């Protein structure tokens, strides 16, 4: 039984992405942490002193889940788009793969 060429491509891409995470953890984890700290300081601490409660919850507890989700979604998008643009820049992803249909 022949090996599926799509699975080989998938595992190659998976291995490349895992290696990128392992080699550059500061580039992967530090920017989202800094962004969340800045959002939390601006919206949580500075604005939170002016807003007391929202439906029985403190403003910080109301804001915190939204900031966590914002960081997770932003990080997921940035990592995926960085891989595509980096591949195009280093020319290991063909132009035809990135074109609109």
Automatic annotation (TrEMBL):
One Gene Ontology CC term in the entry: plasma membrane
Signal peptide span: none
Spans through the membrane: 29-47, 59-77
Keywords associated with the record: Membrane, Transmembrane, Transmembrane helix
Protein name: ABC transporter
Annotated source species: Halalkalicoccus jeotgali (strain DSM 18796 / CECT 7217 / JCM 14584 / KCTC 4019 / B3)
């Amino acid at each position: 039984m022949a090996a599926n060429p799509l699975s080989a491509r998938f595992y190659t891409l998976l291995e490349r992405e895992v290696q990128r995470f392992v080699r550059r953890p500061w580039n992967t984890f530090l920017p989202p942490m800094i962004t969340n700290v800045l959002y939390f300081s601006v919206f949580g601490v500075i604005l939170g002193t002016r807003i007391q409660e929202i439906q029985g919850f403190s403003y910080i507890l109301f804001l915190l889940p939204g900031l966590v989700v914002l960081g997770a979604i932003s990080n997921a998008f940035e990592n995926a788009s960085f891989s595509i643009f980096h591949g195009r820049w280093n020319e290991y992803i063909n132009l035809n793969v990135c074109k609109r249909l």
